[in-house]
Design a protein that fits this description.
Layout: H1 6-18, E1 37-42, E2 48-54, E3 61-65, E4 74-76, E5 90-92, H2 94-102, E6 106-110, H3 133-147, E7 154-159, H4 161-172, E8 182-186, H5 191-198, H6 205-217, E9 237-242, H7 250-259, E10 265-270, H8 278-285, H9 288-298
Parallel strand pairs: 3-6, 3-7, 7-8, 8-9, 9-10
Antiparallel strand pairs: 1-2, 2-6, 4-5
Helix pairs in contact: 1-6, 3-4
């Protein structure tokens, strides 16, 4: 195997972040004893989204928004063809849904555009929330209509890309989120933090990346961040982040957290690992703080 040149590395990095590779949905809720329904609903721009509705005997709903390149199930990094330097192990969100269901919540989990089984849109571009916020709006509308509830019965479990998309949606359309009682945001991120970390040892690397990501997505690098949008978030929010995440830097998520307009917020640093993707398995394996956040705010 030949080693990539710095130019090839940056090109691959830019393309990999601009166009997420689809991964298969290899597990389903019935593996965990959960009844579910396959559902389809439109994003606010009409993009067709595929998901699961897991019913419970209550009027409380948690909507799950996933990271990239994951889907509603997680990520099959344990399969050789999907293993990456960031995730050569499985990310499995099904325990999240089981834990929430056992706590009395209906769950809506779905694939964002260009991920899993949902429709392609925007030329396949991943907008780090700037396009996917329309999916969050669609899921919120579907969830309200499905259960005949208002926002006071809804919580949001939003991870990485899903967290960025949720924060952007809250800023652009605050009226859609009026009364939403709680959010758990796992590892929201600015693309600059990821790119600067990845290109730190390459002279001129971040400048090259910045040019390429603009050409691929039409977005400026600093646009692709929830940092400024967070100033409009008034929903009570628990943020969780791998503290020594080798793929980014703690100051990025600290800045996002600090900018959240709500005074009812908490920041959970996940210790004992440097692997970003371990953060996505944290609540499936340690659900207490997540469930308690929803229980406290949704009653």
């Amino acid at each position: 195997m030949t080693t990539a040149t710095p130019e090839e590395f940056i090109s691959a990095l830019a393309n990999g972040l601009a166009f997420a590779r689809r991964s298969p949905v290899v597990r389903r809720p019935d593996e965990y004893g959960l009844s579910y329904e396959d559902v389809q609903f439109p994003a606010s721009d009409g993009t067709k989204l595929q998901g699961w509705f897991i019913p419970a005997d209550s009027d409380k709903l948690v909507i799950a928004n996933h990271p990239s390149p994951c889907n509603r199930y997680g990520y099959p990094g344990h399969l050789a063809e999907y293993a990456t330097p960031f995730a050569d192990f499985e990310i499995n969100f099904l325990p999240d849904y089981k834990n929430l269901h056992e706590a009395g919540y209906n769950v809506l989990a779905y694939d964002l555009r260009n991920h899993g089984e949902s429709e392609s849109a925007d030329g396949g571009v991943c907008g780090i929330g700037l396009l996917e916020y329309q999916d969050v709006l669609g899921s919120l509308r579907y969830g309200r209509e499905r259960l005949g509830i208002d926002n006071s019965r809804i919580g949001l479990l939003s991870r990485c890309l899903g967290a960025d998309a949720t924060i952007v949606a809250m800023s652009k359309h605050p009226e859609e989120f009026d009364g939403v009682r709680a959010m758990v945001a796992v590892q929201p991120v600015s693309l600059r933090a990821l790119a600067e970390t990845a290109t730190a040892t390459i002279p001129g690397g971040i400048e090259s990346f910045e040019r390429q990501i603009k050409q691929l997505t039409s977005f400026d690098l600093d646009e692709m961040s929830p940092l400024e949008y967070a100033k409009d978030v008034t929903t009570p929010t628990l943020v969780a982040q791998v503290h020594q995440d080798s793929a980014t830097r703690p100051s990025d998520v600290q800045g996002i957290y600090d900018n959240l307009a709500t005074e009812d917020k908490g920041l959970l640093w996940i210790e004992g690992t440097t692997r970003r993707f371990d953060g996505y398995n944290y609540f499936p394996e340690n659900p207490e703080q997540m469930v308690d956040w929803f229980n406290t705010h949704l009653g």
